[in-house]
Specification:
2 copies of one chain form a homodimer. Chain A is mainly alpha-helical and about 220 residues long. Chain A has 2 domains: about 50 residues, Arc Repressor Mutant, subunit A, CATH 1.10.10; about 140 residues, Orthogonal Bundle (Tetracycline Repressor, domain 2), CATH 1.10.357.10. The first copy, chain A, is built from 9 helices and no strands. In chain A, helix 8 packs antiparallel against helix 9. Chain A is elongated. Chains A and B meet through helix 1, helix 6, helix 7, helix 8 and helix 9 of A and helix 1, helix 6, helix 7, helix 8 and helix 9 of B. The structure holds a DNA duplex (30 and 30 nucleotides).
Chain lengths: ~220, ~220
DNA sequence: TGGCTACTGCACCAATAGTCTGGTTTTGCG
DNA sequence: CGCAAAACCAGACTATTGGTGCAGTAGCCA
């Protein structure tokens, strides 16, 4: 796009350099493997074979395996952030009311999840949570911070909702915020285990029903 | 019961033979390790060292590592069954109404989870779900059957409830049954990742609020 | 022309992982 | 007590794993 001239980053989305491409390819392969075999069950040899590089090539991009774990998680969390940003933005454009905006967001989220061709691939945070002793303190902390970020994000919404719609039941808003993470992670487990991609969006929609009932009463 | 005579198993709870004790010890250690490091990350060497046996001793009890995985999951599912049986029994003794019986059950479940000294150790089904490519088809099927059993169990309750209390919202009872599994698995992930044992029972209680709202309206 | 990026190739290593064969002790039980 | 079965132990073996070190190089950009 716009090859107008000199040293401008074209269109804000920089095209990835060759090295970045390879790095992304490794991360893609690693993510897939880790979500199906766990981190320890994913060997470097398998990754380099699939990526079409050599061991030396791998260590050019990552100092060691733990750095791969870290990069994997960082990328995953960033992608989630982006997704939520985008969905909230779309939802807010459709409705100004905080409650209805949130309900729309949840519908958009469910739709997005339902449209994933092979179902949700799995949540890195959940995967890492069941292998925490494999990782450095840094990675574990990153994992926890990811969940806390989701809580803060949803909690902020719920605060604005509760200010306008006094809850029909006695409910801790942090817990209600956490419940979306829980239902999503649980829904992913259901979908993956039973090999039914519909279960995850279905659970999100159930959470939506709960929110609606709790604040709107119907 | 009744040690009236001869070849009765004393007290119904047979005391474990030495071999069974060792086997249980291995399974205990393995479960703990697997829930913290994943299956591939759990080495046999580490298990036999902790159990105080040799490698050969291990293979006397399990043909190979996959058999350990199977035994681990089978035992876990059986223990869950037992727990649910016990809690439903207690709940039903306290109230005959299906809805209130279920609500009591959920409270008992939350209390039980809250009383676990170090929080819930983790769900084997969730752990295995994120490492399915490590296991035989048999183990994967067992995992799926476990979730299906929970669904069937809760669904049966919800059917009886819905017959008496027409739901205030349009809700798929299978999905609502699944939601308990989802919220529990998600709650475990929250509790483990954030190192806060209260989060899991809290999520169960939120699910309880939802059920109450959906069928009772308050 | 040189320097940087992004690798390849190969040699080598200690530590495990998982298996297997064949023996030995320990235990329950009649 | 005596003996078969149960419950192990000793040790050898091989493939794999994560990782180190170093030398070399193709391509690109200034």
């Amino acid at each position: 796009m716009s090859s107008n001239g000199v040293s401008n980053p074209p269109m804000r989305i920089r095209t990835l350099s060759k090295g970045e491409q390879t790095r992304e390819r490794i991360l893609d392969l690693a993510q897939d493997a880790v979500l199906h075999k766990g981190f320890a069950g994913t060997s470097l040899d398998e990754l380099i074979a699939a990526a079409g590089i050599t061991k030396s090539g791998f260590f050019y991009h990552f100092r060691d395996k733990n750095e791969l774990a870290k990069a994997l998680l960082e990328r995953y969390l960033a992608q989630e952030e982006e997704l939520f940003d985008a969905l909230f933005k779309r939802a807010d454009e459709l409705n100004e009311d905080p409650l209805h905006g949130f309900l729309i967001f949840l519908k958009l989220l469910a739709d997005t999840l339902a449209d994933l061709p092979n179902g949700h691939p799995g949540c890195m945070v959940a995967s890492y949570c069941y292998q925490d002793h494999l990782f450095s303190q840094e990675v574990r902390a990153l994992n926890a911070r990811g969940i806390m970020a989701w809580r803060a994000r949803f909690r902020a919404r719920l605060d604005r909702i509760a200010a306008l719609y006094p809850p029909r039941i006695d409910v801790d808003l942090d817990a209600l915020a956490d419940m979306l993470s829980a239902v999503a992670d649980g829904g992913i487990i259901l979908s993956k285990s039973l090999r039914d991609p519909r279960l995850l969006p279905q659970q999100v929609m159930l959470y939506r029903s709960f929110v609606r009932l709790a604040f709107l009463g119907n």
